[in-house]
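Researcher: Last one for today. Full complex below.
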Amino acid sequence: MTTDDWVAIWLTAKLATLTTVLLLGLGTPLAWWLARTDSFWSRCVGALVTMPLVLPPTVLGFYLLLLMGSQGPVGQFTTWLGLGLLPFTFTGLLIASVIYSLPFTVQPLQQAFRAIGARPLEVAATLRASPYDTFFSVVLPLARPGLITAAVMSFAHTVGEFGVVLMIGGNIPGQTRVISVLLYDRVEALEYTQAHYLAAGMLVFSFVVLLGLHLLNRERRV
Amino acid sequence: MSVRANLTCGLGAFRLAAELSLPGNGVTALFGASGSGKTSLLRCLAGLEPTARGYLEVSGEVWLDSERGIALSTHLRGVGLVFQEASLFAHLDVRRNLEFGLQRTPVAQRRLHWEGALELLGIAHLLERLPTRLSGGERQRVAIARALLASPRMLLLDEPLAALDQPRKDEILPYLDRLHRELAIPMVYVTHAMEEVSRLADHLVLLEAGRVVAAGPLSSTLARPDLPASFEDEIGVIVQAVVAHVDSQYQLAHLSCAVGELRVPRQGLKPADGCRVRIRARDVSLTLHEETDTSILNRLPGMVAAIHPSSHPAQVLVSLLVGELPLVARITRLSCDKLQLQVGSKVWAQIKSAALL
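Model: Here's the assembly. Have a good evening.
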């Protein structure tokens, strides 16, 4: 393993952790609203949130690049704020990752919230708990398996992203060169031994994460 | 505490339109067939029906007034609600389920203390268990204790026994009796089982197709001869009685009550036990003289107070006064004419069966 490898691993872990934290913060209220509302607008938002599941990552990356670029509205806004342009920076990559992994947070949470049903909320209200209190003392604990699934899937999915990184982040060591991009470089340079370290590492990581998730969810069902 | 309500609430094709006032004490039963609106009415009282409109006032405090845009949220109403399925929080053990409402009740408003609730419902040995490790009856007892520990101003029970089998019902009913006797908290009890109404209720509200068709004290409401046809089989009286003595040879309990003495199968009663007896109009027949050559044990002398048509043209409902107490008999119109019954006639009421509750 080279320094480049460790830099990429550290960067990937940082990106995935920050993405997961941001997604849980944004995705939880969004999933709650989607689970509790049945209107035309909630359907629209629901479809929009799910789109990264079916779109090729390059399509998403392409439009984000245009939006955040110097001619795009987001790009002009960030320039006006004095933040500069976001493409090919870590912040830009983080924003793209959040959008790209959003369905992996929202879907499990939405299902978990739906499964709770209205009854526990009604019971809590008759026991003098305000809606806000109920959300933290009843809804979140009951949705714990969904929260764990959402966090693990968002983290793992961010670790595995490639197309969006390539479009929006490029290949800057320590800034945007994550494991998957570095692996691509290694293969292009025909450094197969180096590629194996990263590829096998990713393989083991994914297996361990998914196995852990299955065991955790099984334990709670017993 | 008293409740005044004039509520409408729409649920698809069903519409509740109920005007009623409930007394501020004892147990009020909301009785009716499935789909009569009794659960909707209860949920309106709790503030759980977003489509509820109209007016609701409890102890002079306005909880709902659609004209003035007032709708008090459920968590500010201080109502306890026990659902058909116990609905315990699955992520909390029994102790923390019980503490949930207690912790959210200001100390100054707490009226039932911890040990009192555990003892009242016999659940002290269950505290460390998770809801999944409880039987159906235990779960329901914990749910009732949990509601009580939040010191509600009114306890609402939505068919709390309907999901339980008969042994579990028999397990819970004595606890409900105790609540009734030992707590001053008014209760509203939704059920479609007349046995539960007769045993627990003090007041009765009859509902049919989303409307209140009769309301008032239990016995006098059930004795009303003008109840809608669907309730006619339930017409009768509820008599409060005390066991005078027990005939152990024939296993009969001799009950003394306002109508005189009644003899019923013993069912574990001891002398001086209080109990309720239900005498339905369809179980009462009339004779002009005391019939002694009969298998019917309970025969009481009375006087005809009124004769009403029944919903069936072949039958009439005869209201009697036995001493001070009203009794209702359902007999055929033919018999009524043959016996030449009229207001003031002296008759003997033969009670074919008296259900001990």
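The radius of gyration of chain A is 20 Å. Chain A is about 80% helix and 0% strand.
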